[in-house]
């Protein structure tokens, strides 16, 4: 069985990928900043490497005897003074260079659906710049392009718990978000498959109105869906671009753009968003 290095193992998707690899009998190494954060079951201390992907020297030797590198490394909320180019691009470049030096067979990377078309967004520009480099690397590769994670939909639940879910426009844009467990299956399949790119979403294609209603149904107490003019969304985007730094503007830019974009990909999996929302009940959400 092949050996797989999982970068981003403590993230939402990375944890599920580690579990899926273990269930299929792969020899798995988890690359983490802090081994104490690794909560995935069945991962022994002997197959955990502590390293900082932003620092190339800390990655030396991490790909030795590895057949496949999987990376979901990226930031959704900019912190520690790091930018999307620092992490989504350069950190993955650091991994790619180490993979090439070590003779890794394949590199599987998670970007985003419509990433090429959305390169005007700072996060997508960083991800797609790495995709371009990966395609020119000479390694066998696969870029997985999910619509959005269930964990991203948690913001709807957070708003619902406060009594109101806010949407822009008519709320009729559609997406089919996918669970971490279902997406992990796609990612592990990609390690042996021949596709260089896979667009994928979950089993339900939903409008944002439907997602908001699901979140409201999952909470106790009254909840309403409030539609704000789409012109307000566009105004906020234009204003923030002028008056804020890219570190603040980048995440807001991505979220507000997604709320007005259809994110529908071929369906996969069995886990439903309503079940995810119900599972959040009673949890402490940041």
What does this structure look like?
It is built from nine helices and eleven strands. It has 286 residues and is of the alpha/beta class. The chain has a seven-stranded parallel sheet with strand order 3-2-1-4-5-6-9, with helices on both faces. A two-stranded parallel sheet has the order 7-11. A two-stranded antiparallel sheet has the order 8-10. Strand 4, helix 2 (84-101) and strand 5 form a beta-alpha-beta unit. The radius of gyration is 19 Å and the shape is globular. 42% of the residues are buried.
Give the CA-CA distance, first to last residue.
Answer: 39 Å
Series of H and E elements:
EHEEEHEHEHEEHEEHEHHH
Major beta-sheet overview: 7 strands, parallel
Taking pLDDT < 50 over at least 5 consecutive residues as the criterion, the unreliable ranges are none
Radius of gyration: 19 Å
Oligomer: single chain
Q: What integer is the average pLDDT? A: 92
So how many helices? 9
Number of strands: 11
Taking strands numbered 1, 2, ... along the chain, how are they ordered across the largest sheet?
3-2-1-4-5-6-9
What percent of the residues sit in helical stretches (DSSP H or I)?
Answer: 25-40%
Overall structural class, as computed from helix and strand content, comes to alpha/beta
Shape summary: globular
Beta-strand proportion:
15-25%
């Amino acid at each position: 069985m092949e050996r797989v290095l999982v970068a981003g193992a403590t993230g939402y998707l990375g944890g599920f990928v580690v579990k899926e690899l273990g269930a299929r009998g792969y020899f798995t190494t988890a690359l983490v900043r802090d081994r104490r954060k690794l909560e995935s079951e069945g991962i022994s201390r002997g197959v955990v490497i502590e390293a900082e992907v932003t620092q190339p020297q800390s990655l030396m030797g991490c790909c030795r005897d590895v057949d496949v590198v999987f990376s979901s490394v990226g930031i959704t909320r900019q912190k520690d003074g790091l930018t999307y180019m620092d992490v989504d691009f350069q950190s993955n470049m650091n991994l790619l260079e180490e993979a090439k030096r070590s003779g890794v067979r394949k590199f599987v990377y998670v970007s985003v659906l419509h990433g090429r078309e959305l390169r005007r967004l700072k996060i997508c520009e960083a991800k797609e710049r790495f995709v371009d480099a990966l395609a020119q690397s000479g390694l066998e590769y696969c870029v997985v392009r999910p619509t959005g994670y269930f964990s991203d939909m948690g913001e709807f639940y957070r708003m619902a718990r406060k009594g109101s879910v806010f949407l822009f426009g008519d709320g009729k844009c559609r997406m089919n978000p996918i669970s971490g467990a279902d997406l992990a299956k796609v990612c592990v399949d990609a390690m042996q498959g021949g596709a260089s790119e896979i667009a994928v979403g979950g089993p339900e294609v939903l409008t944002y109105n439907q997602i908001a209603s699901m979140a409201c149904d999952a909470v106790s107490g009254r909840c309403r869906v409030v539609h704000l003019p789409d012109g307000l969304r566009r105004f906020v985007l234009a204003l923030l671009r002028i008056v804020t730094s890219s570190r603040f503007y980048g995440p807001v830019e991505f979220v507000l753009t997604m709320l007005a974009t259809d994110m529908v990909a071929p369906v996969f999996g069995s886990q439903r968003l309503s079940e995810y929302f119900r599972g959040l009940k009673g949890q402490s959400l940041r």
